[in-house]
Amino acid sequence: MSNYFADNNLLTRKILKNQTESVFEFYGRFENFMKQRILLLSMPNYASGFDRAARFPNLGLASIAGNVDEDLIDKIAIVDLITFRSDLKKFLNKLLMNFQPDIVGLSAMSFQYQTAVEIAKIIKQINKEIYTVFGGYHITLAYDIISNSEDAAYIDFMIRKEGEIAFNNLVKALAAKTSKFSEIKNLSYKENGKFNHNKCAENIDLNKLKIPKRNIRITKKYFIFGKRTDVIETSRGCTMNCNFCCMPFMYGRTFRKYDMNRIKKDIENAIANGAKSLFIVDDNAFLDIHHMHNFCDLVIKNKFNKIDYMIQASVRGIASDENLVRKMAEAGFKFVFLGIENVESEDIKLLSKDKKVLTESVRAVKLLQENNIISAGGFIVALPDDTEEKIWNNFHFAREIKLDAPFFFVATPHLKTEFRKNLIKEKAVTNLHDFCFYNGLQVNVRTRSLSSEQISYIISKMNGKYGDIEYIKFNKIKTNYPFFFWKAFIKNIPRMMTNKLRKILYPNNKYLNYIAGRKRLIKRMRKWLLDREEVILSRLKELNIRENL
Ligand code: B12
Ligand code: SF4
User: Which of 137, 167, 282, 284 best tests ligand 1's pocket when mutated (most atoms within 8 Å of CB)?
Assistant: First the structure.
């Protein structure tokens, strides 16, 4: 990082800019044309626990960067703030002063959006001439709300849905100093201080996209299970109907594949940039089992199986094809994340999932175990009818099938989804607008019998209880990544000891460890430029009062 700053001081920046201007003025081709300095940022916020096992680079930003025409670029860089742990404000100030960007692109999921706004404020304080461009999931879902909010003062442009073509067109317009923004599809831009929202283009033909630019990342500390990692995609979209998912707002219910030649180049590029493992970010690559067979064949044939692969998959995709799972093992797959969702039949119906999901989950996990692949599984709990017992049933199911990594997500009412509408009708949403908590682990709903904080407490107990001696015995993370596993285990010992000690010293207050966890969250959120102390503490009071009753 220090070298980077050393050769990018303010003076160099000015000279470079003048040179670029004079070259173009000399040729008289583009009178006002100016190559752009583009800085792309992904957000530092993480869902607690994820960051200990994995920190991934943002593929959306790398793909956008890869698709900006070279002759528009003076300098371009990606900074994945997820890898960054110290004083964010100080770091950003230094970065912006040294890079002197013309354009800063910010990518955010819903729970990261408010941090992106706080960063945009810092950018505008340093130089209000810098253009801030927001993109990603939250923008796609909430552009209309945002354009009428106070946040709009810090946002110059929003790009909805897929960003590659729209961003390139925007950079072109800014470089040529034209203001023909109305012609750029997917773009929201301001006229007389008010946002206009252009129409969106059709989904991109994926095979026309250039390879993501990985070599321009300033940040480097990406890992999963202790191994240097990167991200690739082999398809975009999903045709399923799960009503809690916001993916259809991005691509509609469609499924597009990259052809194998392009995938081959992408893997080569990721490996050349240091990847020792690859996370495949596709929504649901297993919609086309042949595609997955072809992918594995490609990896095996080209000897790309010296590195590890991880993917999320539908339980049906895995359960339905024993040969594919075997081939995946040969191709180097070490981790599969399955969307199990819930064990209660009423809840499965509420999530618009197929009721066969449970029997298929049992088979899918068994096949993964037989092939030495780590099985992770996501559950969605806290649906309106859920009681404490029903929530725990998900835990028991995970233990019964010996899931290596269970994720007990809380039903999250993401904007615009059918699921949100249903929960609002049920009066089950306790936090409608503060999206900082929409990360799947924080609770924003209540059930008919449980408050948000009670749900949160139950889930923290489930997470705490899963990692017992028996778990250590059957767990495949330990066999596939022993160094990572034992290092994480040892690192966790002081916290386990403190928790035990609290229980011994204060046997009558069962909430003490939980409260400590909530306080850690307050500290973490402050690091992301968010202060939600009051909100979190007020919910804790609710729990204590109930306890005293
Ligand atoms: C891979 C993935 C992950 C990975 C890694 C993500 C990463 N590196 O950032 C992991 C497993 C860690 C993960 C975790 C989580 N994820 Co996730 N994840 C995805 C997934 C499947 C793919 C993301 C991706 O890389 N897509 C491919 C790239 C090319 O597309 P993209 O990121 O969307 O970028 C394009 C556009 O969005 C846009 N764009 C994006 N940024 C910008 C910026 C600018 C300036 C511009 C112009 C355009 C632009 O242009 C890009 C190119 O077309 C998506 C679903 C999906 N289809 O996107 C969910 C998704 C993004 N995740 C989601 C969630 C909720 C989470 C979690 C919070 C919890 C959870 N329940 O899983 C955690 C939290 C992670 C954390 N930071 O701690 C939600 C977000 C919902 C929302 N409204 O915010 C999604 C949409 C899943 C869903 N179906 O609901 N996730
Ligand atoms: S299968 Fe996954 S990606 Fe497809 S709609 Fe359901 S949750 Fe969304």
Answer: 137
